[in-house]
């Protein structure tokens, strides 16, 4: 039974926001473990198609670009329709697409609140709902379907940066993960979440552009690698993670749980 514990052989996956950063790391990891097809989305067609081409050439499976803006219900419905047209079953859904906004408390705009809340909380819920049929079709007691929400350690502890809607959205997504898990496990759909710490990405410019400085504030002494993120996603997506239901795994080098200082002090995401 321990053989091929982390294999994703033949599985079909969708990774939103998969053209770069954490989404690209996860898409690569799924393909590396044998996924047959991994669909990736992004707002910009060029980078999405380029990443799909690159990952297809590098791994055995096929990476397929679906450049769609899923920040609106129309975009969510369009993406769900594309997947349903192409695939009768969907084994893995990774809700990774997200946005951030920072501004002083007294100046924080409604637009910065709504944009972040819609993409970070509303989209994962309604996209999962829209894809419930192919997820249920893929799911069984022996091989559950998987939904993995990408949260953030900013949803677990207080980051000193004034990213109010981002922190609230990620905390909300962590609790939404628990609530969705309690409902969907009865359909053999396992819902979990990953809360990343510092990884190189366009959203985390500090880790991308000032790696050495950020690493000093991480108990593990470094920022996250592609393998760190891919490995956690592979665990949750594979048979190895079938019994992990509703949990959020912090992948952060110990910032949240191994930091001897005051939570959040001096941290810069």
From TrEMBL:
<keyword id="KW-0560">Oxidoreductase</keyword>
<dbReference type="Pfam" id="PF13561">
    <property type="entry name" value="adh_short_C2"/>
</dbReference>
<dbReference type="InterPro" id="IPR052178">
    <property type="entry name" value="Sec_Metab_Biosynth_SDR"/>
</dbReference>
<comment type="similarity">
    <text>Belongs to the short-chain dehydrogenases/reductases (SDR) family.</text>
</comment>
<protein>
    <submittedName>
        <fullName>SDR family oxidoreductase</fullName>
    </submittedName>
</protein>
<dbReference type="InterPro" id="IPR036291">
    <property type="entry name" value="NAD(P)-bd_dom_sf"/>
</dbReference>
<keyword id="KW-0521">NADP</keyword>
<dbReference type="InterPro" id="IPR002347">
    <property type="entry name" value="SDR_fam"/>
</dbReference>
């Amino acid at each position: 039974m321990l053989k091929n514990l982390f294999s994703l052989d033949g599985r079909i996956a969708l990774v939103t926001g998969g053209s770069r950063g954490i989404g690209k790391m996860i898409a690569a990891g799924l393909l590396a473990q044998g996924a047959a097809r991994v669909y990736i989305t992004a707002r910009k067609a060029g980078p999405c198609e380029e990443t799909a081409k690159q990952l297809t050439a590098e791994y055995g499976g096929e990476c397929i670009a679906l450049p769609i803006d899923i920040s609106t219900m129309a975009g969510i419905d369009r993406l769900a329709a594309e997947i349903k047209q192409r695939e009768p079953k969907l084994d893995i859904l990774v809700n990774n697409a997200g946005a951030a906004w920072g501004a002083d408390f007294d100046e924080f705009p409604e637009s910065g609140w709504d944009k972040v809340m819609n993409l970070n909380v509303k989209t994962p819920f309604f996209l999962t709902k829209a894809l419930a049929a192919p997820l249920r079709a893929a799911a069984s007691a022996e091989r559950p379907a998987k939904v993995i929400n990408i949260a953030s350690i900013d949803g677990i502890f207080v980051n000193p940066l004034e990213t109010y809607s981002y922190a609230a959205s990620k905390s909300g997504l962590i609790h939404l993960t628990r609530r969705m898990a309690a409902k969907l496990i009865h359909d053999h759909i396992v819902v979990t979440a990953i809360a990343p710490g510092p990884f190189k990405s366009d959203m985390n410019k500090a880790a991308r552009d000032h790696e050495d400085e950020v690493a000093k504030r991480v108990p593990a002494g470094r920022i996250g690698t592609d393998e760190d993120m891919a490995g956690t996603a592979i665990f949750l997506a594979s048979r190895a993670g079938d019994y992990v239901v509703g949990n959020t795994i912090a992948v952060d080098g110990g910032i949240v749980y191994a930091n001897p200082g005051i939570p959040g002090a001096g941290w810069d995401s």
